[in-house]
Structure formats: structure tokens, C-alpha cells
């Protein structure tokens, strides 16, 4: 049986290669089924809309026209389910598409949508910017992940400590993350949470530099 550290290394390699299905196949089947139902709730949300009166209730001095504008803008975003889906699941543009996906494919689309390289490509397309093919998979750079070791909480639950280090940074720099695993009939399998599943402590933002010459996409 592969050790928990080996499973995490395989997941790290698959994330680096953009092999999202390979990561999904390393997830504990019971955890995958449980999270799949949660993710499918994105296809059946109850959007929260507001009225101008509600906006003014919190800020009574707000002009009525401003309150109406802000309420309308909020409601447009809240009701735009397709935009919400594509932010959470790469390439999924309707509830019907989401419902049709198998559990492993659903997780794979979620992982891809959380990847900063995919987010950068989406930003570039929306901004009408071309991303040179030679750098399309490298901007922004994904941090190196170095496995340190594992701790067994009990015979069926383990936690693997690893360091996330910016590319080119010397050893010892960066931050620590933990990947948790449960034992299954197939061996150790991942619990889909934390940094490996796009819930880590680093985020990215993209924007156009006001220099007239170039765009930037900097980690925040």
C-alpha cells in the first residue's frame, strides 16, 4: 500500500501537470460522493436579491436613485447563475451541464477553475488580451510543493505536512500546508479540502497596468 506521503506527491505532480482527473481519482470515494452533492447545490441555488428600500434601510441617507442602482447591480450578479457556475467549474455554463457530469469530472472541473493558470486565461480572454502559448502554462507560476512528512491521527486518518514555496525562492521560505487522507479499500485517499483543492492561503488577482505598455498578473 502506498504511504500517505506518496499519495500527496502524486496529487502534487498531477496538479502541476494540470491532470485534474488524476487528482480526482486520488480522492476517497465516500468523501467524493459527499462533496459532489454539495457542489451540485451550485446548480440549485436560492439567489439572495435586495430592493432599494432594503439598501436604504442600512444607509438612510443614500439617495433613492443610488439605492435603486446598487440593488439592480447586486441582483444582476446574484441571478447570473451561468457566470457563477463558470467561476466554480471550468467550462460549465449551465445547471444542466453541471448535473450531467460524473463525480470525478465534476471535481476535475472544480480543481481547474481554482487553478491560477486557468483563472489567468479567463481574465485574459475577458480583457481581450492574448496569452503567448509559450507562457500560457506558466503565468502565474504555481508554487513548488515539497512534502515534509506524515502524522497518523489513528489507523484510518493521516495528515501530510508540505511546504509551498514560490518558484525560485531558497529552501525554508514559503508557508506550510496540510493534506488529510482517509484509508479506503483502495488504500490511502485524499479528503478534498485545503490547499490541494484550491482552498489554500494564497490567492491571485489580475489587472491591467496603467503604463500603456504591458499587463500584469501578480500574486496577492
Overview of the structural elements:
It is built from nine helices and six strands, in the order H-H-H-H-H-H-H-H-H-E-E-E-E-E-E. 24% of the residues are buried. Strands 1-2-3-4 form a four-stranded antiparallel β-sheet, with helices on one face. It has a two-stranded antiparallel sheet with strand order 5-6. Mean pLDDT is 82; it is low at 201-220. By secondary structure, the chain is α+β, with helices and mostly antiparallel strands. A hairpin with a 2-residue loop joins strand 3 (175-184) and strand 4. The chain is globular, with a radius of gyration of 21 Å.
List keywords for this structure.
alpha+beta, globular, disordered C terminus
* Beta-strand percent range: 15-25%
How would the global form be characterised?
Answer: globular
Indicate the percent of residues in helices.
40-55%
| Secondary structural class | alpha+beta
Taken in chain order, the helices and strands follow as HHHHHHHHHEEEEEE
Cα Rg: 21 Å
How confident is the prediction overall: mean pLDDT? 82
State the helix count: 9
Q: Biggest sheet, strands in spatial order? A: 1-2-3-4
Query: Runs with pLDDT <50, length 5+?
Result: 201-220
Task: Reconstruct the topology from this structure.
Layout lengths: L3 H14 L2 H5 L4 H12 L11 H7 L5 H16 L1 H8 L6 H6 L2 H12 L1 H11 L17 E11 L2 E9 L9 E10 L2 E4 L13 E4 L8 E4 L1
Antiparallel strand pairs: 1-2, 2-3, 3-4, 5-6
Entry summary:
41% of the residues lie in helices and 19% in strands. The chain is an alpha+beta fold.
Amino acid at each position: 500500500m502506498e504511504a500517505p506521503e506518496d499519495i500527496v506527491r502524486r496529487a502534487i505532480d498531477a496538479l502541476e501537470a494540470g491532470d485534474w482527473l488524476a487528482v480526482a481519482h486520488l480522492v476517497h470515494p465516500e468523501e467524493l460522493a459527499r462533496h459532489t452533492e454539495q457542489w451540485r447545490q451550485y446548480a440549485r441555488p436560492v439567489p439572495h436579491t435586495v430592493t432599494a428600500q432594503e439598501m436604504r434601510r442600512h444607509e438612510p441617507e443614500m439617495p433613492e436613485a443610488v439605492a435603486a442602482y446598487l440593488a439592480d447591480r447586486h441582483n444582476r450578479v446574484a441571478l447570473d447563475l451561468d457566470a457563477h457556475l463558470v467561476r466554480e467549474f471550468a467550462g460549465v455554463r449551465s445547471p444542466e451541464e453541471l448535473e450531467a457530469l460524473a463525480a470525478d469530472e465534476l471535481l476535475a472541473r472544480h480543481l481547474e477553475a481554482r487553478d491560477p493558470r486557468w483563472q489567468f486565461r479567463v481574465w485574459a480572454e475577458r480583457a481581450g488580451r492574448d496569452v503567448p502559448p509559450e507562457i500560457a502554462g506558466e503565468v502565474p507560476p504555481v508554487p513548488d510543493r515539497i512534502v515534509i512528512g506524515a502524522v497518523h491521527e489513528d489507523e484510518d486518518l493521516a495528515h501530510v505536512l508540505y511546504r509551498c514555496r514560490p518558484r525560485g525562492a531558497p529552501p525554508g521560505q514559503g508557508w506550510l500546508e496540510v493534506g488529510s487522507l482517509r484509508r479506503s479499500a483502495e488504500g490511502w485517499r485524499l479528503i478534498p479540502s485545503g490547499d490541494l483543492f484550491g482552498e489554500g492561503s494564497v490567492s491571485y488577482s489580475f489587472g491591467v497596468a496603467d503604463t500603456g505598455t504591458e499587463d500584469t498578473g501578480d500574486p496577492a
